[in-house]
Amino acid sequence: MHPFQEEQHKCQCPVSGQGPPPTILFNILSQKRHSNNSPAAEDNQGRYSPPHNCHCDQRRTVCLKDPEGVCQAASAVLVKTICFMTSLPSFCHLPQRDQLALLRNSWVPLFVLGLAQEHTEFEVTDSPATSILKQILLNTSAGGHEMEKTAAMPTLAKVHKLKACMQRLWNLDLSPKEYAYIKGALLFSPDVPGLQAPEFIESLQQEAHRVLHEVVVTLHPQDQGRLTRILLTASFLQTIPHSLISELFFRPVVGQADLFQLMREILSPGTATKDTAVESKSAKHCQR
Q: Is the pTM of this model over 0.90?
């Protein structure tokens, strides 16, 4: 099995003809949803006629098949990512407010780069399904909080996007120097709102781009399109949702704790408590 291959999933939509007949509640909700957009909501015998498109794969919620092993590897990558930031003197000389703003803005693309660089592989499987009726009751009693929580859960479509991004990085076969300067270019973004030193940060990003270009030309003198492919892949990294990474890789570890607060503690020890699984790896990995 390919390391990214998901468990087989049989479509349960009525249109597939493979699942069980739709429930009365499903018919009522579906008729209400499609009454304005689908004039043929019922056939001649008054039965529900679903639209002829299926988005099961896109909306399926998933979770890690091996959460213990993968979350441990992901925690190590996250700590190494933050330690990479703190190893840069130019980053450490920034005001703390700018450090935190850059951390919040860039930790996801840098983390995905770290996953690719460490060749971290994972599989996903279907999350336990929540019935439509339960969602309605939770939405009514909790003011929509549970529905919002469900909406933030990883979906198969989002995981496929993450995998595609990692595959692009693997296809580029990046050197350690290329990884480092891509991280620097993504970290030092002058477009982050509220920065106190945007001009200095912009100069750092320009320097990272300049050195990245030199490294690419030196290592691959015959590949004139390599730098463009690298920059396009880097821009794709920035489209990965923060909620996907948080929920898929870290929610099983930190529970309801504030993940960004834990990252702040690794970045600047003493600003938060130190009793989490993520932080327990920080000192060991930063020394490597």
A: no
